[in-house]
Specification:
Strand content: 5-15%
Bound molecules: zinc ion
Number of strands: 6
Distance between the termini: 48 Å
Order of helices and strands: HHHEEEHHHEEEHHHHHHHHH
Radius of gyration: 21 Å
Length: 360
């Protein structure tokens, strides 16, 4: 396969990312997942993993982390410094049949970086000399998305899966409280592992399956929004995704807004090409998209007002319209009801001026 060779060569985008990290005094970026995992595992005691005086997981959890560590140690990252992003890109490349799109995606390098600033993700407009380009998104955002996705999963169980078990409902209520706390206080995560490990295996597997797929789709939405910016300025490829390239617009403001809408639409269509083939799992892909936009809203400064970017509210409404045309009536109702519950819970800990902005 021709791609093997191309992937093996290091890209300028990758080099730029690491030199930027180096200049910011951050040298550990290529290995950060392995290092975090090693640190967590080194906090293991005979009673489980204790961090900041809190037990964050029992032997089940430790076994899971050890499996993950083994997987990471045997995995060569070629398109990103982040395992999730690497798997997302590989999954896309295996599924996509259009060679031109594949080639463009292969030129990306996705860097996950630590930055407490409000810029969640970006892509360099000008490609580097070797044609590669750098997509960056922050680990802070990825972590927040993970927490919101966990909240969503617990809500699904609370709302729909646990009618007859009082005891289970009680732990769901405690889990929801912890999840909200963890979203509100970035630096002070309690985590829900202790609860998950008490679930019966089948319930826990279902929970994790839903979580993995939604989180995967949410991360996908971020990455392919940025790659979408590259696709939408390429006339041939833009046609493939049925969008009008923003490059022809002369009004700068309109151009920027159009570029953003196009990038969202392309990203949703790509997620659809992975999830939308199978009615049993398609809602998980759509949930990931909406959860990602909800997560963007948590710290957003343009929740309801357009700047040079469309407001989060408009992006959410566009995504809902897109999904409405794809899902059957009843799945659509269930999905929006669940997202509504996420919104209501989040509004209790955010400073949203409109506590129903997603319902317009
Ligand atoms: Zn954008």
């Amino acid at each position: 396969m021709l791609y093997g060779l191309e992937i093996a060569m290091s890209k300028q985008a990758e080099g730029v990312f690491f030199s930027e990290a180096y200049h910011n005094g951050e040298t550990e970026r290529s290995n950060w997942q392995r290092e975090v995992l090693r640190n967590v595992l080194s906090s293991m005691t005979e009673n489980g993993i204790i961090i900041n005086g809190r037990n964050i997981g029992d032997s089940n959890f430790v076994a899971k982390l050890e499996r993950l560590q083994e997987e990471l140690d045997n995995y060569e990252l070629t398109l990103s410094n982040d395992l999730t992003s690497e798997i997302i890109l590989m999954c896309f490349l295996q599924n996509e049949t259009n060679e031109e799109v594949k080639e463009l995606v292969l030129k990306s390098w996705v860097g996950l970086w630590d930055s407490p600033s409000f810029i969640n993700a970006c892509v360099n407009k000008q490609d580097f000399y070797d044609g590669s380009y750098l997509v960056k998104y922050t680990s802070e955002f990825q972590i927040l998305l993970r927490k919101v996705t966990e909240l969503f999963c617990t809500l699904i169980f609370t709302l729909d899966f646990a009618e007859d078990a009082d005891k289970v409902l009680e732990s769901f209520a405690q889990m929801l409280a912890i999840e909200l706390h963890d979203i509100e206080f970035d630096e002070d995560e309690i985590g829900i592992n202790a609860y998950l490990s008490l679930f019966p295996t089948r319930l826990r597997d279902t929970y994790e399956e839903i979580f993995q797929k939604c989180f995967f789709a949410g991360c996908m939405f971020i990455i392919f929004h940025e790659i979408g910016h590259k696709i939408e300025v390429n006339e041939g490829l833009a046609r493939l995704y049925n969008v009008n390239p923003s490059i022809h617009l002369t009004d700068q403001h309109k151009k920027e807004l159009t570029s953003e809408y196009n990038a969202d639409l392309i990203s949703m269509k790509i997620i659809d090409s992975i999830f939308g083939q199978n009615e049993a799992i398609d809602w998980l892909g759509y949930a990931g998209i909406l959860l990602c936009i909800m997560t963007l809203a948590i710290k957003s400064k343009n929740l309801t007002i357009d700047t040079n970017h469309p407001s989060i509210q408009k992006r959410y409404i566009c995504a809902k319209d897109y999904i409405q045309n794809k899902l059957g009536d009843s799945s659509e109702r269930v999905l929006f009801r669940r997202l509504n519950a996420v919104g209501i819970m989040l509004s209790s800990i955010t400073k949203w001026e409109d506590n129903e902005w997603w319902n317009k």
